[in-house]
Amino acid sequence: MKKKLLVIGAHSADFVWRSAGTIAKALEEGAETLVIALSYGERGESGELWKEDPKRSVESVKVIRHAQAQKAADIIGTPIQFLDWGDYPMIINDERVEQLTHIIGDFEPTVILTHSEKDPFNPDHPLAFQATQRARLLSSGAGVPSAFKNIDPPVWYSFEPHQPELCGFVPDTFIDISSVFEKKVAAMAFMGAQSYLKDYYTELATRRANHARRISGKKEIKYAEAHQSQVPRVTNTIF
Amino acid sequence: MKKKLLVIGAHSADFVWRSAGTIAKALEEGAETLVIALSYGERGESGELWKEDPKRSVESVKVIRHAQAQKAADIIGTPIQFLDWGDYPMIINDERVEQLTHIIGDFEPTVILTHSEKDPFNPDHPLAFQATQRARLLSSGAGVPSAFKNIDPPVWYSFEPHQPELCGFVPDTFIDISSVFEKKVAAMAFMGAQSYLKDYYTELATRRANHARRISGKKEIKYAEAHQSQVPRVTNTIF
Amino acid sequence: MKKKLLVIGAHSADFVWRSAGTIAKALEEGAETLVIALSYGERGESGELWKEDPKRSVESVKVIRHAQAQKAADIIGTPIQFLDWGDYPMIINDERVEQLTHIIGDFEPTVILTHSEKDPFNPDHPLAFQATQRARLLSSGAGVPSAFKNIDPPVWYSFEPHQPELCGFVPDTFIDISSVFEKKVAAMAFMGAQSYLKDYYTELATRRANHARRISGKKEIKYAEAHQSQVPRVTNTIF
Amino acid sequence: MKKKLLVIGAHSADFVWRSAGTIAKALEEGAETLVIALSYGERGESGELWKEDPKRSVESVKVIRHAQAQKAADIIGTPIQFLDWGDYPMIINDERVEQLTHIIGDFEPTVILTHSEKDPFNPDHPLAFQATQRARLLSSGAGVPSAFKNIDPPVWYSFEPHQPELCGFVPDTFIDISSVFEKKVAAMAFMGAQSYLKDYYTELATRRANHARRISGKKEIKYAEAHQSQVPRVTNTIF
Amino acid sequence: MKKKLLVIGAHSADFVWRSAGTIAKALEEGAETLVIALSYGERGESGELWKEDPKRSVESVKVIRHAQAQKAADIIGTPIQFLDWGDYPMIINDERVEQLTHIIGDFEPTVILTHSEKDPFNPDHPLAFQATQRARLLSSGAGVPSAFKNIDPPVWYSFEPHQPELCGFVPDTFIDISSVFEKKVAAMAFMGAQSYLKDYYTELATRRANHARRISGKKEIKYAEAHQSQVPRVTNTIF
Amino acid sequence: MKKKLLVIGAHSADFVWRSAGTIAKALEEGAETLVIALSYGERGESGELWKEDPKRSVESVKVIRHAQAQKAADIIGTPIQFLDWGDYPMIINDERVEQLTHIIGDFEPTVILTHSEKDPFNPDHPLAFQATQRARLLSSGAGVPSAFKNIDPPVWYSFEPHQPELCGFVPDTFIDISSVFEKKVAAMAFMGAQSYLKDYYTELATRRANHARRISGKKEIKYAEAHQSQVPRVTNTIF
Predict the structure, then answer these.
(1) pTM for this one?
(2) Inter-chain contact B232–A1, Cβ cutoff 8 Å?
(3) CA distance E134 to chain D (A)
(4) Do C170 and E171 touch (CB under 8 A)?
(5) Predicted-complex ipTM score
(6) Closest chain C CA to residue D7
(7) Residue-range domains of chain D with CATH
(8) How does pLDDT run across E35-49, given as a tens digit for each residue?
(9) Where are the beta strands (DSSP E) in chain A?
(10) Rounded CA gap, C7 and B137, in Å?
């Protein structure tokens, strides 16, 4: 079975905090991966840069954020593509959905990983969800021959938002990322001055590992990422 | 990884209609399986026998139902155990939960499959769910050393009820049972005069296969069973 | 089609506040009705009597509550039966469920009307719901011939609780009770010194009528009662 | 009471699979009906035509789809109107909502039947729901005299989507379509080469009939369609 | 702690019916308040004016509605600002969200009060909710220094819609408005010929007071307004 | 206003992990507090003791657990009462509910804090919720004079379970416990060898503080506990 993972983040750092471990695990098992950063998070999520120099230009922030995310992607070993749609507010329109539809159609992912449907603390995350949802359906079609290229409908997950309970996020898939956790730490280290987030997500990985051990009895899990599936799993085994 | 599947049905035929394919698939991949029939469904679900002879005794119905379920289990190749708790009404009490706790503790399943939490059309199905839920927790404990034997918490699914939407059943796991479907048909054939149910569940398997194909693009799926997971999946791959 | 309405209230006054109009409408169209009062509400809901005389006996309260409810039932024109199960706390056990099962089996209602599933302000209402739910299923069975008498499964509604939103109550059926509202007023007048509740439920009937007019455009509705169905409607017309 | 049924489908075949029986029943009882096809489903749902000839033009597909749907409507006996909004992606904008508002205002339906709110397998169905929801509110207004024509708010149902549980579809109204099922079969036969869908929906009608019999005890139901109401029912009888 | 209340209503009378008491209470405790009327409700909610004279112009209706709302605001003692976005249909676009973002950023409210997320009886209320939700997030940002002014995220409530259960409205905050109820009555009196709504909302205030007394035991509450919080409460006391 | 906090834990350590900060804050503002430990958690949650000596008696475990919880309560400064109902399985019956009803009636709490309604990882926590729910209603009655003592209905919260999302726990109240966090740390230190839980809950307090800061902008919050209210808040201010 083909293994291709597409990660779509609203801002350029989202893929690191929320799914760097899952991407690294996918690469570890030989999968092909691609990260899409819809924006640089240049206006709303670049606090450290604006604090350093409130007079800097938006463009200069983008350049820095681009470099940081590229380094993080490199350390994990995944390609990354930047769409530069702008943030706070991100604007979604028919052309952008079409752009994303083409990206999905070209990459033909077997799994897509993106934001949760709801996020009362972030205006851009639900838009990224909606754009992904629509582009995924338009690229895979109705499951019958059609006027356009149809790919097999990718499996589809939401990664963990900042305040999960308030986003209606209920994790149903815990990925053991113990074997690749050092790569995630290294990738997080490139994310500028946000050392508090590095601690925050390191701790989250140990908490989710605690949960995963309690759920499964698998005592060897040290670090985990939690996701929520958006479509059923089709398999040939109950185990 | 150990593969042990425990199926718990309220009435002696439930495991056939709702999970014979999943059991056969588990056996196909070398798993150990066990079916528990909490009752014979002797009062409420033996329509064909009571119609034949309204004066027959409850005990005689149990004997026939036992034989039918045993034959169905044999054809699938799974052991089955009958607890004879009575039906319509089934009564759950602390002793019965303890009995079930011991069965789970002794068998040490990695997966449990039982009824859905809610069923507005059946008084016994939700009781079977509750007894299983409680016994599963009592046998696996709090995940720390304790005063009693602790097993690893089994994964836990609900199989499909008769009117899924009205039972709050949302399938999230489709098992491709194409390779073993003949066994399910053969097992269903032993379930007395209920040929209409055989047709009903054959058709259901094709419908769920249609859904599974639409979800996944896997065109080779001809028959499927749908289940709903009750606890998250802990894994080391997103694929 | 046979029209038989069974109303089951936890306390002897519930049927008046929550469904007197619906009962009177049913009688108006020639239906047979029966009210079951599981208890007299003698301990928890007889405030006016305990305030008058804190030293009176529980038995004397029951006598008064029986007489009040009987008069209310008479004015509406419906038989009423008192089970005297006790209140605050009401105790439900297997014998009581069996008693209720027999009542349902004997009366063979086409519609049952009772409390809502949840009520965070009343300990007895959800128990009445549970007992009714279980007895209804046990009297109607699995829809196949069985060891016991089977009636056709009655349609089943919850009537309106005191704080609907906090009870998860979402009305989906508004009954226009304008033509019989005087009977409801007269019945409420028998409910002792609780004149404030008479005002409360008169006003509720006008509010629900306002809602019913907004929903349907039927300007002639002056008074309404709102219920929530618990099972789907089976019909041969979409109108 | 006036009986006027408006059916709004995203693609030109939706009304056949999901509601041909309900439309035929409405006509049987003397109602006036109108079907609106928002698009021809020419790009995403015309698999058989694109498979026959991948080089054919979108316009030629529309012509064929128009003719098929017209024949199906004729056999049922209902007028049908095609809006040709395009599919995959369907685009909804203020002008189109206004167009639909005028259609609703002119026809003055008492019942509207359309798609479900959610459909994770189809990008156009939820858009049809949203457009209908908005147009219905704009045509019926706030229930007070206003600057524009106000109709009585139509009753409003969703018909059954392809994977009901995953669309949040919970049927609460089952229509017995036994007496008109032959018409539905004849209408489905015009839907091109999709004989597999004819079988699929024939079987669905027998399954929903099985459910309807279990719910109601009405043994005479052979075929049924299931819908979900979007607004409460206002009536003068509980039966 | 700064106390600043911003009330955002879709139509110019919404703030009176749904929150006049809460605004007056806020003023009573020294808070600063501001009401935003997104439209005059000139087309859909000015029934009395259109009935008087069906030929009057939309502009003349706006003038009257402006004057009425201004007088109501004056009697309560709150500033009010009219955005004149139009109603039935209200149109929300990026510019309007930006306008609202600036208003929020300038006023720096500690609490925002607006419509509920869902309202199946009104096309404009959910749009007001969405615009407020988005503008609130854009004005408060991600909680880190950014390219634009960031205010502390305001607490955020929905006030009560007309048919609460059908709007998914579950009140979790009851405000005792007994001490200012006369002001609400006086404000309602300015709302033209809609005396039936004055009665309706007076009665609603007594009903919500009844609920508040039952919930809390606070017998002194005579009138109350009920709201639903949209974000958690952060406090230093459990009492 | 009287301030009395009652905390009810299924096992003797629950109050420490989940609410020691909230209790200490209540004491800091002069409230009266009482902790009820329904059991010692002697069988299921005393891992460290059973690991030390698998042959020790259940009674000896209880003695140690009693002493640990007493010391933790002492350091916080709250009385604690042990009901010794047994764990794994905890058994709830009418007598025990009555016992708890008397405790609530005697203490007359203004706030009750206990477990969440659902916990798929613990068999005893939901039972503690149910017993508390029922006892609370029986002690406060229907809000009218009655045959038994009636207290004002206490406000009622659930504290945070171990895996919040899987327990349906949505925090809506964050308590800033920064000023008393040292006491919580000291209390946790008495909980035997479970140093990993001390770290776990210290980290949780910083995470919940992070969330509280993001929600409110209150930068001074260093440690927080999160709870979920079970009944609405009745207040005279929106701030």
Answers:
(1) 0.96
(2) no
(3) 20
(4) no
(5) 0.94
(6) C238
(7) 4-229 (3.40.50.10320)
(8) 999 999 999 888 888
(9) 4-9, 32-37, 80-82, 111-114, 155-159, 173-176, 224-229, 233-235
(10) 39
